[in-house]
Design goal:
The chain has 2 domains: 120 residues, Aspartate Aminotransferase, domain 1, CATH 3.90.1150; 245 residues, 3-Layer(aba) Sandwich (Aspartate Aminotransferase, domain 2), CATH 3.40.640.10. Helix 4 runs parallel beside helix 5. With 400 residues, it is of the alpha/beta class. Helices cover 41% and strands 14% of the residues. The longest helix is centred in the first third of the chain and has 24 residues. Bound molecules: pyridoxal-5'-phosphate. The site of pyridoxal-5'-phosphate (PLP) has 13 residues, from helix 4 and helix 5. Pyridoxal-5'-phosphate (PLP) binds next to helix 4 and helix 5.
Amino acid sequence: MKDEEGKFTLQTSDFQEFWSLDPGVTFLNHGSFGACPKAVLAVQQKLRSQLEIEPIRFFGREWEPLLDHARNQLAEFVGADSQDLVFVNNATTGVNSVLRSLSFCAEDEILTTNHEYNACRNALDFIASRTGARIVIAQIPFPIDSPQQVIAAVMERVSPQTRLALLDHITSQTGLIFPIQQLVQQLQQLGVDILIDGAHAPGMIALSLREIGATYYTGNCHKWLCAPKGAAFLYVQRDKQSQIRPLTISHGANSPRTDKTRFQLEFDWTGTDDPTAYMCIPDAIAFMGSLLRGGWSELRQRNHQLVLEARQVLCQALGVLPPCPEEMIGSMAVIPLPAAWDNRHFLAVHDELFDNFGIQVQVVPWYESPRLLVRISAQIYNTPEQYVYLATALSKLQNC
Ligand SMILES: Cc1ncc(COP(=O)(O)O)c(C=O)c1O
């Protein structure tokens, strides 16, 4: 698929021109870091210029209304009251902020699953090493037949000592949508607080934080909402907000202001930083929602359909079975590779695909799975042909 100059040429979508993505790369990994459209980056550049032209005026007068506007728009998008939302740089920070704010003791258990994202699992281990709290792991099978298996596996590990459950809304290594609402309901009935890591959820699936009703929820805006990097949020149930502090203590801690909660005063200012990624969230919502006549719901549906078709193509080409029902997939899907590869080959397979075929796709090293996993993403700039090309490339590698 290389042209005479050695560049990869594969038909891309008409939408690709809205992104800066290298046209020579078949980019099937929106999930890892998102990709921000040029139009949204242009807004960010304008905001940065506004800041640099008069930094004192910007931070003195302009910064807070811009931040509050972004918060209001985001609140509407994720179905929350803006009063319950603060910005953080990323979901990892959201998870850490909650875990490091709560006090645990040696009798406490924190429940999570074997699908937990490595960085957040490390945060749990850190808390455990400091406090003596025990990390309890619910074993969720993969391949999996139904969302009920997730509920059963999690609920089985709840005990009278369970203080908190850290659960992913959409898992990283396996791309599964967990039945979060039912889990929240059942855990809350047993008095367990829930921290949801929704790193992939905003923009991939329709969200109503009000309906989910979790105690804490963090989500990234730089992945599927397509905001610039460093844009994420933390939602905290109102009666818990006074306990949750940012990782960096700054001016908000003793601010005499009474027009905002201490929760927002503290998280809104954690020291001088570039806040423009947050301020672009309304533009990202508007831009992505304008690409198709049916707005966000059509976009989400289209990405979902594309990834399902792509999964089928790949499973057929590789002779493997889909590892989960369609209802557990948003716009990322994971395909277990044939037995010839295992986790030791993850970097080699990734590099072969990138170096020899110009394909950027997530090859997942997940030691819970005996099979090496490939995770594909579908965003509007992708086309069905790109996944056929991936299937061809993997089949060629398999036969080498
Ligand atoms: C489930 C999950 N949690 C957390 C993260 C971390 O996101 P970030 O690096 O933006 O903090 C990811 C990233 O892919 C993820 O998949």
